[in-house]
Amino acid sequence: MFSLRRLFAVAVLALALAAAGCTGAGQVRHDTAKEAYQNGMDAFEGGDYEEATTYFRAVFEYGRENEWADDAQLQLARAYREDGRHLLAAQQFRRFARLYRNDERAPLAEYQQAMSYYRLSPDYELDQSHTKKALNLFQLFADRYPQHEHADTVEEKIAELRGKLARKQLAAARQYERRELWEASADAFEDVFNQYPDTRWVDEALLGAVRTSVAYADRSIASKQAERYRRAVDNYRRLEQIFPDSPLLDKAAAHYETARKRLEEIDGEDAQPLAETGE
Length: 279
Known about the structure:
Elements: H1 2-19, E1 22-23, E2 29-30, H2 33-45, H3 49-59, H4 69-82, H5 86-99, H6 106-120, H7 129-144, H8 151-178, H9 182-195, H10 202-218, H11 222-242, H12 249-267
Antiparallel strand pairs: 1-2
């Protein structure tokens, strides 16, 4: 008897749910794509982003071709963004841009995808995977839409993120230097110059390259010293040419003089003379 009652109760519950219309994971109710979308907008505007995402996803239950699907896709991404779930937002903005390439809002979705990764970009000391992803997306956006209303903001973000990556590389070079890994340090300092020449960290990186190249040469075998001192000289001349007013120039000059004098000692009287800088 108990089992029959239980079966009857289950049957009644199933019928009630069926009569209530489509129901999502959050117990949302809707009978049409339009109703699901409008309920999602109500939740979104009320600040209930969790419920909003459930309703917007429910729109897709009526097929991706229904007239509310594109709006629901974009609003789903926005709801994740407003809820602080930026990785999910990035994924949904990307989906909108791919599914609705001919929609006039597709460029904005691409911009918001990049912004989502930008918001995930951490301090320079931490892993910079999201920074690189944001930078790549902003650069792609700048190439595709140079006249877009957000073009100036994109250029600012590109400069900011490149500066962060340069600072990260500079920190790695300093770490190598502290560990007396002279070759790795000199390479890392030069990479800042080679990869991020438009950032504020370049003169400091070139100073580091001069300093560590001299240290590397000092500790090298005799047959390798000349080329490594010349590396220090080359980096100093880059610094002097590109940043003639840098406050770091005097510090670099001391290391340059060390390299120049040791080259003269190595090369002897038959060596090609190194002209004094500025002559």
